[in-house]
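Board notes (copied after class):
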Amino acid sequence: MTDSKNINNPVGQGGGQRKKLSRAERQNNGPHRNLDRQGAADQKAELVRKMREKARAAEGAEQASDDDTAQS
């Protein structure tokens, strides 16, 4: 089967018409990408928040154990 080098030419693509992709969409910069970026930013913010909470909890536990040993 021969594949076309032109993405807008449906030769070898199983038949049917294909949507003409804009230059940005061909480079994966379509309108859906903004939503993907926003979702990734939200996930990253959530991960950073969880890591900071864990760090604070560990720091608090460390200080509490230091206080206990200092009083002994």
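Comment from the instructor: The radius of gyration is 27 Å. Helices lie at 23-26, 31-71.
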